[in-house]
Design goal:
There is one protein chain. The chain has 71 residues and is an all-alpha fold. It has a domain of 44 residues. It is 56% helix and 0% strand. The protein is built from two helices and no strands. Helix 1 packs antiparallel against helix 2. The chain starts with a helix and ends in a 27-residue tail after the last helix. The model has no long low-confidence stretch (mean pLDDT 75).
Length: 71
Amino acid sequence: MMVIGGILLVVAVIVFLGSFTTLGWLVATALFSVGVYAMYQQFVKKKEPKNKPGPARRPEKADPINLKVDE
């Protein structure tokens, strides 16, 4: 993901420098944003330990509407 982000940043700079239209600048800005986002996601990605048991689940509470009352 980091490599893809870097490639997108380079392509964005090339498009920006080679373009003299507003549309080209918008495309370059979009590519740049996606590249930065891709690099950011890789940077902040949390490493989850493997085979670690999750938290204990609580039993579901009974739904008061469906409770049957003994008569």
